[in-house]
Amino acid sequence: MDGNELKTLLGAQQGELDAVLMYQALANAVREQNDAQTFRRLAAEEGRHAAVFKELTQRTLKPKKTLATLLPILYRLLGRKRLYPIIAKFEYAAVDNYAPVAERFPEVQSVRDDEKRHGDTVKGLLE
To answer: Could you give the CA distance from residue 113 to residue 123 in angstroms, rounded to a whole number?
Structure first.
């Protein structure tokens, strides 16, 4: 594994760990029960993704609480109709960000597929 691949994998691992806390915090902040259940499910899936990346990097990282603190505030300020598309956009961005390493590490492809589905799921909460 070269330095660029490791950097991408570590960034992905950190992002997945941070997303676990973010989705858990959102689940506790939202008013809609269906949204809360969805965010809890997404948090669990992001945790599995972090484990995939940990297996590849062989590094233990700690989640950062920034998004978990910020997103519930943004939920109250912006509302779900404006916030959820932003969250979906970040999920879709992960699909592109993981592309370079997915070719070399096939297990990352399933994570990419999940991230696309996560974006669709979050957007679907507004339908």
So the answer is: 16
